[in-house]
Recover the amino acids of this structure.
């Protein structure tokens, strides 16, 4: 709404303003709002900064740690706690699963073992259920 008002204020004397021209007036423009800036790209796409937040264990609140500036293509640490990862021993978490997304990073025996574990657990649960029913009926 504020962006529309700003565009209309800049062209209020134009008499041949149609919908296409009005939409194009938003392109390649940055609007400054109290909360943050809004940038519209060359084809009407919204270019926004991305804020990465995480839990502050000591305060119990969510706080901003990094901000990715989409127009500048830079990431900035906005907190002194941005580089600490308490749940992984101080190192950032992996950017992929240990065996890869399709299991391509693990050997065939590891993949076979990973498939056998749920089958064994299911068989044990079924056995416990059958035993429970038998004990209940007797």
């Amino acid at each position: 709404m504020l962006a529309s008002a700003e565009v209309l204020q800049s062209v209020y004397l134009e008499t041949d303003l149609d919908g296409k021209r009005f939409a194009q007036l938003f392109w390649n423009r940055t609007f400054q709002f109290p909360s943050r800036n809004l940038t519209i790209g060359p084809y009407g796409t919204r270019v926004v900064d991305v804020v990465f937040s995480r839990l502050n264990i000591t305060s119990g609140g969510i706080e901003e740690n990094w901000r990715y500036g989409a127009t500048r293509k830079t990431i900035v640490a906005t907190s002194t706690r941005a580089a600490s990862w308490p749940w992984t021993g101080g190192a950032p978490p992996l950017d992929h699963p240990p065996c890869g997304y399709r299991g391509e990073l693990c050997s065939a025996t590891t993949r076979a073992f990973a498939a056998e574990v749920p089958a064994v657990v299911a068989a044990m649960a079924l056995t416990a259920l059958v035993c429970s029913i038998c004990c209940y009926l007797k």
Observations:
- The chain has a mean pLDDT of 79.
- The chain has two domains: 3-83, 97-137.
- The longest helix spans residues 108-137.
